[in-house]
């Protein structure tokens, strides 16, 4: 549906999960894609999976390191001549009850999920403002809208990302730069299948029945939303958060075979 031929795209958190699929989506649509993550070997593996990524640059960098990100964008400017689209996908968290979470733990989650996107967006702004055009899509979460038991810092960071999106959209919109957020709900990445559902088809089916559409999401659902917001079709959309969550939660379905 989308044609990004010639568009220059940087995807963070590109080494696995949703980020990996976003990379493939833009590559398939003709974009020049650059991949960023902390693990170079995994980036090279992702690059090798798609024939249109043969010339794609990979950057092993921490999104929380302002100097490292500045170097990445200097290289993008030299090799690509600029950037058209930034996808702030890198993020992460760990489970801890709010009463047990240390201030350092709280700060570390905020840094990767909120400070990182800010550093990347600010670096992209330098190039996008010069060319008077650009698109930034942040990857949020329903945890930023709903309560997030066991992930208080993650929920707070993703809520902050929504507000930052609106502020950047307001400040940068007049310069031709659109900033939006895609907020996924439960998405069946390989990690989710393994960790959350123990690769059990019955667990996955049962969890899917709690969504009003009757299933859990798949990475392609998020990719389509990202491509839409990055495309000219969304030219009049700025500062919004698009929830890709399968609709409202319905009453849980009791399945005696999977209840422990």
From TrEMBL:
Domain of life, source organism: Bacteria
Cited InterPro entries: NAD(P)-bd_dom_sf, Sc_DH/Rdtase_CS, SDR_fam
Descriptive protein name: SDR family oxidoreductase
Record keyword Oxidoreductase present: yes
PROSITE patterns linked to this entry: ADH_SHORT
A Pfam family hit: adh_short_C2
PANTHER family: 3-OXOACYL-[ACYL-CARRIER-PROTEIN] REDUCTASE, SHORT-CHAIN DEHYDROGENASES/REDUCTASES FAMILY MEMBER
The keyword Oxidoreductase is assigned to this record: yes
Family listed: Belongs to the short-chain dehydrogenases/reductases (SDR) family.
């Amino acid at each position: 549906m989308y044609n990004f031929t010639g568009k220059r795209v940087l995807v963070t958190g590109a080494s696995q999960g949703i980020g990996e699929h976003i990379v493939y989506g833009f590559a398939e649509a003709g974009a020049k894609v650059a991949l960023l993550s902390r693990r170079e070997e995994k980036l090279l593996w992702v690059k090798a999976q798609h024939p249109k990524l043969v010339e794609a640059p990979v950057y092993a960098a921490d999104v929380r390191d302002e100097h490292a990100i500045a170097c990445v964008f200097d290289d993008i400017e030299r090799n690509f001549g600029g950037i058209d689209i930034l996808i702030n996908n890198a993020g992460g968290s760990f489970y801890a009850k709010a009463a047990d979470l240390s201030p350092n733990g709280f700060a570390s989650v905020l840094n990767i999920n909120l400070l990182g996107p800010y550093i990347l967006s600010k670096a992209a702004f330098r190039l996008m403002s010069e060319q008077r055009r650009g698109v930034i899509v942040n990857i949020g979460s329903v945890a930023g809208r709903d309560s997030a038991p066991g992930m208080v810092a993650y929920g707070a960071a993703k809520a902050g990302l929504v507000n930052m999106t609106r502020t950047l959209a307001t400040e940068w919109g007049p310069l031709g730069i659109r900033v939006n957020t895609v907020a996924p709900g439960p998405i069946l990445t390989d990690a989710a299948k393994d960790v959350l559902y123990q690769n059990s088809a019955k667990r996955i089916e049962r969890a899917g029945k709690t969504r009003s559409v009757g299933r859990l999401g798949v990475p392609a659902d998020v990719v389509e939303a990202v491509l839409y917001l990055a495309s000219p079709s969304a030219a009049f959309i700025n500062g919004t958060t698009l929830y890709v969550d399968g609709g409202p939660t319905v009453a849980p379905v009791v399945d005696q075979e999977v209840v422990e």
